[in-house]
Write a structure and sequence with these properties.
The protein is mainly α. Helices cover 74% and strands 5% of the residues. It is built from 25 helices and 5 strands.
Length: 673
């Protein structure tokens, strides 16, 4: 009897605290009709149907508004009013709408709050496991948000649900979690609740000292922080009295119950708690055989509970009346109240109150005692099995929820991993492409610089040749001037002097001698013509022809070395088709090649041939090596530089060509490019 009464007292307080009715604040009234609807819906003095209609009008208005944070807050207000009016069907419907809107908006705070509300809905039904499931969902969100106050509230709701199912170890664990997260928060009411639940669990597990410790702490918190919303001080005094009652310390229990009843507002502010304390006080007085206020006190408690439609409270009030009348020897009334208690227990499907009713019936009705005991054992076994299943179900819900969250987090992690791998690959490809592009541009720039340098060198070579040509032309002009001045003009002067005789003499002999000067004039004419023709020859006309440049270069090399160099060239070669870099490369190769030959002092006649083979330009250098033995050929060629890497590199990298070396026993070497 005492165990169940205490359970009702504590759990009734905790669950009612979760969604308590809010006191009306008329300052909310404005000209706007919607706030007025909400005020009327929250006013307990208004007719129930009117409150319901006003709340429905407010719901119809907000359901068509834009899904924003203000809209969701107003829908929560509507849900609270449905809960306070015990319209749980509309309450559930409204909360599910809020949950969908919060999910669409990714509003995790509203989602967690909606999960908590749905948990409260199922907590008021027989589906306690569903309530626990939604509490776990809310817990995960509050953990991520590090919202300690709301997380503590969820743990308290979990503990309450577990207590209803007699999962005391799970209930204690949830309450301890609540205390841990709430310890440094300013929400003293939730800290009070956590201590209250821990005291209740310790009492159920018969750890009375620990129970008194927690309830005493809860009482101190309530007094220090002036917690009066739900008459916390009276509730804690009642809970401490219950612990002493279970210890059979009835006088101490009576002292705490009477202290709790000194609050004159209790009967008006919270009549349900007043009825519980009154019933507990009557039971303690009954145990010490103080019948002075019995059974009036028990009947008063029964009337209060019946008026509030508190089914479990009515059942235990009737059981206590049955105990009283059985003690007084009135078996008829004792049996009557016990039967009514069992009937009401079956009506509300409360197994615990049914067990207490059956135990009382077995005591007051010996004839049917065996039947009642058999039914008691059956319900007790079923209840224990159901409690074990529920505890396992709670553990499974937490495990499966954790697994789902873990799988979701893993999927998100995999998604991000794939994303970052893809980004890394794309960045790597981009970097590789940019590096290749940069390298390509650098090569292009180097090539352009190389070509520019080659053009400059060709320009300098041609400029040198042009300068030499200008110098030769100047020399030729001076030579012609000298010839004209010293030779032609002198002879013309002599002829003129000879012809002046005709002014004084006109005899035939003089005329004959003068006529003979005509041949001399013709000779002078021929000499002048020859000089003029010499000025027009190609020898003195500069052309920027690469073939002429090669001829000039080879002549210079022959003059600078002891080699005799001949040049053979296919006239069909279009030197203009070659870029400057390749022209310069040919020049440098010839220069290095013949310098090596001269350095070794082994060269004789050398011939350089240029000819075309289809689309290929072939340069062939032939020469005879003198005074060389067979076994010395490789070393000599190496010393000459024919195998030096600088020549091969120029041929392969500048000319895009290949080399081949042919040697014969006649000591003749051919170098083909």
């Amino acid at each position: 009897m005492k165990k169940t009464v205490f359970l009702f007292s504590v759990i009734g307080f905790v669950s009612f605290f979760g969604c308590s009715k809010k006191k009306l604040d008329y300052s909310e009234k404005t000209i706007d009709s919607i706030p007025i609807y909400l005020v009327i819906a929250n006013e307990g003095s208004e007719p129930y149907q009117k409150r319901l209609e006003c709340n429905k009008k407010a719901f119809d208005f907000f359901i068509n508004q834009e899904n924003d944070s203000v809209n969701r807050i107003n829908l929560f207000k509507i849900a609270n009013r449905y809960y306070n009016m015990d319209d749980f069907r509309e309450f559930k419907k409204t909360v599910h709408i809020i949950l969908k809107r919060a999910t669409d908006s990714k509003d995790t705070l509203s989602m967690a709050k909606a999960y908590t509300y749905i948990g409260e809905y199922f907590a008021n039904t027989i589906k306690k496991d569903s309530a626990y499931l939604y509490y776990v969902k809310a817990e995960k969100i509050y953990q991520k948000r590090n919202d300690k106050i709301n997380l503590g509230g969820v743990y308290i709701s979990m503990a309450t649900t577990q207590a209803y199912e007699n999962d005391y170890l799970g209930c204690e664990l949830s309450a301890v979690k609540a205390l841990n997260v709430l310890r440094d928060t300013p929400d003293k009411s939730k800290i009070y609740e956590a201590h209250n639940i821990l005291g209740f669990v310790a009492n159920q597990l018969k750890d009375y000292e620990k129970s008194l410790e927690y309830h005493t702490k809860a009482l101190a918190i309530a007094k220090e922080n002036n917690l009066t919303l739900l008459n916390e001080v009276s509730s804690s005094l009642n809970n401490i009295g219950n612990v002493y009652q279970n210890q059979k310390k009835y006088k101490q229990a009576i002292a705490f119950f009477e202290e709790a009843l000194k609050d004159k507002r209790l009967v008006f502010d919270k009549p349900s708690l007043y009825g519980i304390i009154l019933d507990n006080l009557a039971c303690s007085k009954f145990q010490i055989k103080d019948y002075s206020q019995l059974p009036d006190m028990l009947y008063k408690s029964l009337r209060i509970r019946d008026s509030l439609n508190i089914g479990v409270g009515v059942i235990f009030s009737k059981i206590h009346l049955s105990e009283y009348y059985y003690k007084e020897g009135d078996s008829i009334l004792a049996r009557k109240f016990a039967v009514e208690a069992l009937s009401r227990s079956k009506e509300i499907k409360n197994s615990e109150s049914a067990l207490v009713s059956l135990r009382q019936l077995a005591a007051v009705d010996p004839i049917k005692a065996s039947m009642y005991k058999e039914e008691y054992i059956k319900i007790s076994d079923s209840l224990k099995l159901e409690e074990r299943k529920t505890r396992e179900k709670f553990a499974r819900i937490r495990y499966e929820t954790d697994e789902v969250i873990l799988a979701k987090d893993k999927a998100v992690l995999q998604k991000w991993t794939v994303f970052w791998i893809a980004v890394s690959v794309l960045l790597s490809v981009l970097v590789f492409y940019l590096l290749r592009l940069r390298k390509s541009r650098q090569r292009e720039l180097l090539l352009l610089l190389s070509r520019q340098k080659a053009d400059e060198e060709i320009y300098h070579l041609i400029s040198d040749r042009h300068q030499k040509f200008e110098e030769g032309r100047e020399k030729e002009k001076k030579r012609i001037a000298r010839e004209l001045h010293d030779g032609v003009l002198g002879r013309l002067s002599n002829i003129r002097t000879s012809l002046l005789v005709l002014e004084n003499k006109t005899d035939s002999e003089t005329v004959r001698r003068c006529i003979s000067q005509m041949a001399e004039i013709q000779d002078v004419e021929k000499e002048i013509r020859n000089i003029a023709h010499g000025l027009g020859r190609d020898l003195f006309f500069f052309k920027r022809d690469y073939s002429e440049l090669l001829t000039s270069v080879l002549e210079d090399l022959a003059n600078k070395t002891s080699l005799k160099i001949n040049l053979e060239m296919d006239k069909s070669i279009d030197w203009n088709a070659l870029d400057s870099q390749k022209k310069l490369g040919i020049y440098q190769i010839l220069q290095e090649y013949f310098n090596c030959m001269d350095k070794q002092e082994i060269g004789t006649d050398m011939t350089v041939c240029f000819y075309k083979n289809n689309s290929l330009l072939i340069m062939e250098i032939e020469g005879v090596l003198s005074d060389i033995k067979n076994h010395e050929i490789e070393q000599v060629l190496k010393d000459m530089g024919l195998k030096e890497i600088n020549i091969d590199l120029r041929i392969s990298h500048i000319l895009d060509g290949k080399t081949s070396l042919r040697m014969t026993m006649l000591m003749k070497t051919d170098q083909n490019i």
